[in-house]
Design goal:
Layout lengths: L5 H6 L5 E8 L2 H21 L5 E8 L12 H12 L3 E6 L4 E2 L2 E8 L4 E5 L7 H32 L6 E7 L4 E6 L1 H16 L4 H4 L1 H16 L1 H9 L2 H22 L11 H38 L2 H8 L6 H22 L5 H8 L2 H10 L1 H5 L1
Parallel strand pairs: 1-2, 1-3, 3-6
Antiparallel strand pairs: 4-5, 5-6, 5-8, 7-8
Helix pairs in contact: 2-4, 5-10, 7-10, 7-12, 8-12, 9-10, 9-12, 10-12
């Protein structure tokens, strides 16, 4: 067709209005989709069907889990399309999805005219990856996996869809999986899971731990022995002490609050590695943020309380600099962080768990974890 780009030739052309429903599980995700909805009609016309009128509807909707903690989109697709008045439904979940040990980006069913996209599999650059993934998914829903795969080959060569591989589940039924491949794919999934968990939300939930840490760290501000020891230690040794303190508190939080996952069944080893690594990274980042906040509080306290002349006399130095205060606060923060691990025992297990995971991941674990249900 004259005037049609090479990509539009691949996807084909139509002559109807297609309503695509984008469903988000949370408010923040809905706002991201609303921004995406402004760009999609033009992108779909350019890459999927130039003669088709595209309408995008964004809704916040959370589907229930089945007994195994899986999203039941395909079983509810027809009802959702009727309820929303949509021709196609694309549901974005905050849950990571693993099938046969493979990390899934999308589950696409042409007969059901529905697709399930796992947001953590989009990695850190979620908005950019989301736009490309939605385009790819709608292309397959509109033209089937055979025609869409021709366009996919070009997109892969241009690096748009790497590290993603398309795998047919039911060739006759028109259902396919888009899965992440290789080490790069698993790294992308892990980073996306940590982002979905939002480590910074865990810090406010550790109020008792922070109180214990500040109390212990303040002891270092008033005890001259800590001043001398901090000044005598090299930056490398202080760094090692910091890492040890963060490790101790992270391990305590995971063990005490039952955050370590124990999946069962086939491919359990890979699932355990992925879920527990993401939990470890989430908790470690949260503790590191708490450590940084603690350091700033103690440093400010030391600068306020300890006069330079007095510090110089106690340390028997010819001159005191800002570095001496930094090393003092550095050591005191490590001491406080270790004490904070014990103080975290006073924090609510439920509050810590809710803050560690995304809302949907917390709901899934609460439904499927025997240990959580017993507490």
């Amino acid at each position: 067709m004259a005037g049609m780009t090479e990509e539009q030739d691949v996807w084909g052309a139509g002559a109807r209005t297609v309503v695509v429903g984008l469903l988000a599980e949370s408010g923040p995700r809905r706002r991201m989709l609303q921004k995406l909805a402004q760009e999609l009609p033009g992108e779909l016309a350019r890459h999927v069907d130039a003669n088709c009128s595209w309408e995008i509807r964004v809704e916040e909707y959370a589907l229930p889990f089945d007994e195994e903690g899986n999203i039941t989109l395909m079983a509810n697709a027809q009802e959702l399309r009727h309820q929303l008045g949509c021709d196609q439904v694309v549901y974005l979940t905050d849950l990571p999805r693993l099938i046969r040990g493979k990390a899934l980006l999308a589950d696409i069913s042409v007969p059901q005219e529905a697709a399930l996209i796992s947001v953590p599999a989009l990695g850190l650059a979620q908005y950019r990856s989301m736009r490309k993934t939605v385009l790819r998914v709608v292309a397959e829903l509109s033209h089937g996996p055979e025609l869409a795969s021709k366009g996919q080959a070009r997109l892969i060569r241009r690096g748009v869809l790497r590290p993603v591989k398309q795998r047919p589940v039911d060739r006759e039924g028109g259902e396919t999986y888009s899965e992440l491949t290789g080490a790069r794919g698993y790294v992308r999934l892990l980073l996306g899971m940590v982002r979905a968990n939002q480590p910074w939300t865990l810090v406010p939930a550790l109020s008792s731990a922070m109180a214990a840490a500040i109390g212990t760290g303040a002891f270092g501000v008033f005890y001259s022995g800590i001043w001398a020891l901090g000044n005598a230690l090299s930056p490398w040794r202080l760094t090692a002490i910091s890492i040890a303190a963060i490790t101790i508190m992270s391990a305590w939080l995971i063990a005490y609050n039952g955050l370590w996952d124990h999946p069962e069944g086939i491919h359990a080893r890979r699932k355990r590695w992925i879920y527990n690594t993401s939990t470890l990274l989430t908790v470690a980042m949260a503790v590191s943020l708490m450590y940084a906040a603690l350091f700033m509080v103690i440093l400010l306290g030391a600068l306020t309380v300890i006069a330079g002349d007095y510090l110089q006399t106690q340390l028997q130095l010819s001159q005191v600099s800002f570095v001496n205060y930094v090393k003092l606060a550095w050591l005191a923060s490590s001491m406080g962080t270790i004490a904070g691990a014990l103080g975290s025992s006073w924090d609510s297990d439920r509050a810590v768990r809710q803050a560690t995971y995304s809302r949907r991941e917390y709901e899934r674990r609460a439904q499927t974890s025997k240990d959580w249900n017993e507490q």
